[in-house]
Amino acid sequence: MKSIRLDKFLADSQLGTRSEVRQLLKKGLVSVNGEMVKKPEFKIDPASDRVCFDGKEVSSQQEVYYMLNKPAGVVSATRDNHDRTVLDLLPPGDRRPDLFPVGRLDKDTTGLLLITNDGALSHRLLSPRRHVDKTYFVRVNGRIREETVEAFRKGIDIGDEKITLPAELKPLGEDQALVTIREGRFHQIKRMFHAAGCEVTGLKRLTMGSLVLDENLPEGSFRRLTEEELFRLRQE
Ligand code: URA
After folding, report:
1. Atom in ligand 1 nearest the alpha carbon of residue 187
2. Is residue 105 within 6 Å of ligand 1 at its C-beta?
3. What is this structure's pTM?
4. Amino acid 61: pLDDT
5. Among 97, 95, 78, 94, which Cα is nearest to 86's?
6. Is 60 exceeded by the pLDDT of residue 230?
7. Taking the CB of residue 62, how many other CB atoms lie within 10 A of it?
8. DSSP β-bridge partners for residue 168
9. Which listed residue, of 65, 189, 210, 230, carries a Cα 20 to 30 Å from 121's Cα?
10. How far apart are CA 102 and CA 116, in angstroms?
């Protein structure tokens, strides 16, 4: 399956910007499986094609990291038969077949979602043993009371084998709060509030470990992680 433009592949491999890479192609410095290729739009399969620049192989193992501000209405999956997925939101030029979302947000949940092709980092961030903090802004119908805060702090029986780990609930009024959980159980926050007598009407993820949703990133948009963000995330 040939699936990615050669200029995009070379730019992702840090060989230069898209326009610098086009100049390198024009000069005949790039080959694919031993044949010189000058067309930037030439399609390659990073998994099987051998791309060389100036005689040296260009690694296809380039890892990429995007922050997405997920809108409601798209599913956190790589493909789906009914709904648009978070990957469908990437500009076509940035779509790679090896990308996936790190964990899941419900279809109606918005906010921070990391998209990458780095399986090892994803595994670490999602490992139940690591307890990476995730903070959400939540709106409920019902009243958040002192007892609710206390129940979250102690852990709640949501019908699983074990009660939830202690979670921090910081009310921002009667029906809004910041909530920080250290696990990633299915519909966890909705189920915790339900068990405490409230229904969640809005949920937005703001942080995952050290990674904080960029408030300048409009819903539905992506941006690459900065080196600093990536460095700190790798320390989790
Ligand atoms: N908890 C939920 O209930 N839903 C999410 O999307 C994330 C956490």
Report:
1. 3
2. yes
3. 0.79
4. 59
5. 78
6. yes
7. 16
8. 180
9. 189
10. 7
